[in-house]
Amino acid sequence: MNKKIVAILAVLWMCATTSSLRGEFETIAGWDEQVFPSYLISTAAMKHTTEVDETTLGDALGAFGVVVTATEDDQPIKVSILCDGFAETSEFVGVLPKEGQSYRVFPKMRYKFEKLSQYRQATPSSVTFRVQLGEDVPEEKTVTITMRSINDCAFTLIDGDNTIDMNFCFAAYVNEQHPFVDKLLREALDIGVIDSFNGYQSDDPNQVIAQVYAIWDLMANRDVRYSSITATAALSRNTHSQHVRLLEETINNTQANCVDGTVLFASVLRKIGIDSALVVTKDHCYLAFWAGKNHEKLYGLETTMMCADTSEEEIPDFYDAAVAEEQRWDYSWGSFVLAMATGTTNLQKELDKKEAEISIIDVATARLNGVLPIPFHSDQEFLAYDFTYSEDEVAEEAGEAMEETEYGEETEEMVAADEGSAATTEEWNTEETEAIASEQGSVEWDEEETPKKRRRAPMQPAANVEWE
Fold first, then answer.
1. How far is CA 120 from CA 33, 149, 151, 256, 378, in A?
2. N or C: which end of the chain has fewer CB within 10 A?
3. CA 353 to CA 421: how far, in whole Å?
4. With 90 as the cut, is the pLDDT of residue 273 above it?
5. Phi, psi for 441 (deg, rounded to 5)
6. For position 80, what pLDDT does the model report?
7. What is the spatial distance between Cα 353 and Cα 345, in angstroms, rounded to a whole number?
8. Coil, strand or helix at 3
9. Which of 332, 303, 338 is nearest to 213 (CA)?
10. In three state form, how does the secondary structure of 32-97 look?
């Protein structure tokens, strides 16, 4: 990743004139005068361990700086950067060692990270650069930049004929500490596919797959569907980017493109201790996860297949041992198995190539390298579903079952004996049936109460769902 950072810095520096007249300076402001809050947040704690050119002073990872030429040896310099709202005034004070040499100077920016995380639309902003050489009068320049939305993720930089992979920035949208994640896990346990989330504690790959299915099943209950929204409001000449939903947006709006669904699953899996990775191809993204703590087996999961219509598909029996048949739901099990088979097959095909055309972003490794998650700063509240039974509902269901088994034959005989009726169950007086059931000691049915179901009734699967 450090090699990537060096290449990123090269693009930053190209955004300014590589030399300047003596006593004058050129400005460096992001990439093509566009700044990505997601990049600034995700790399805030990243350590730069690669050797930097001696003509670079200050914060080697900085997005804002100046190019200035020394007019004498050991020339004192003070660089100040003033921003509209998203950072405190930031300064560099030092010395330019050699007369006639151009230097790139990057003050350590004092960003307001909470403010950065709240940019939801591309917004113009003013940045003022002030440079003082020795005792000279400070020179000042103001530029207008485009502050991109926090949802805009830069994934490729263009450097002439070369492209620089920035896919590690997608890991910033994985947020294992998001407050919604715990609530999702609670709902999954309420549904009851599994009794607990224990990561790798069982040392059983099938238990890991069962936990992944429990999350998939919850998303199907919540009706999270594929929605390909990737376009950004602002464009750049040398930066490719796409719109990525934050977790609260995906969860509450029940929509996800390939990246959205992948970072959602990666967030939940990391929370429960299952190692996962983002698999990024030229135009697609899907999840990979390890079924053992020693990373013995890597599976793929095609998240765009959530809630896909699999009624016409033949469902393979690859993972039958992982989840008991009575714990599978027809609406989610078929799509899960096909998503596992599709993702794993595609992943293996790429890994079998001599030169893989994918990036596998191990989230744990990204964290070790200092890539931080974008923090939750939103007034959105968690849209919850109740997947539990109350004690009355359990008793009510038991009563319904008893009525069906014990009084079914008696009810049919009474209907047939009623000469004034058409002998159909539709015309049967339900009040008499309930009275009979009550006399026999069954649980009373309260017609005014709508019983809560363990599973929310799903919408009809969308026709012709496509995934890459």
1. 18, 5, 7, 17, 11
2. C
3. 74
4. yes
5. 90, 15
6. 97
7. 13
8. helix
9. 332
10. CCEECHHHHHHCCCCCCCCCCCCCEEECCCCCEEEEEECCCCCEEEEEEEEECCCEECEEEEEEEC
Classify residue 172 by its DSSP letter: G
**pLDDT tier for residue 318 given thresholds of 50, 70 and 90:** confident
Per-residue model confidence as pLDDT tens digits over 419-431: 444 444 344 344 4
Is the pTM value of this prediction over 0.85?
no
Give exposure, 251-267, as e/b (b: 16+ Cβ within 10 Å).
bbebbbbbbbbbbbbbb
All structural domains of the chain with their residue ranges: 2-150, 167-368, 391-439
Look at residues 84, 86, 150, 152 and name the one whose alpha carbon lies nearest to residue 120.
150
Residue indicated by tokens 């047939």? 416
Helices (H), 196-246: 205-221
With a CB cutoff of 8 Å and minimum separation 6, the contacts of 85 are: 112, 115, 125
Give whole-number Cα distances, 258 to 156, 250, 278, 352, in Å.
17, 11, 10, 23
Which of 365, 313, 334, 14 has the alpha carbon at shortest distance from 162?
A: 14
Mean pLDDT of the region 274-299: 95
Distance, CA of 27 to CA of 20 (rounded, Å): 10
Per the CB < 8 A criterion, the answer to whether 330 and 354 are in contact is no
Query: What is the DSSP code (8-state) at residue 322?
Result: T
Burial state string for 440-454 with b = 16 or more CB within 10 A and e = fewer than 16: eebbebeeeeeeeee
Establish how many alpha carbons lie within 13 A of residue 305's alpha carbon, considering only the half-sphere containing its beta carbon.
Answer: 22
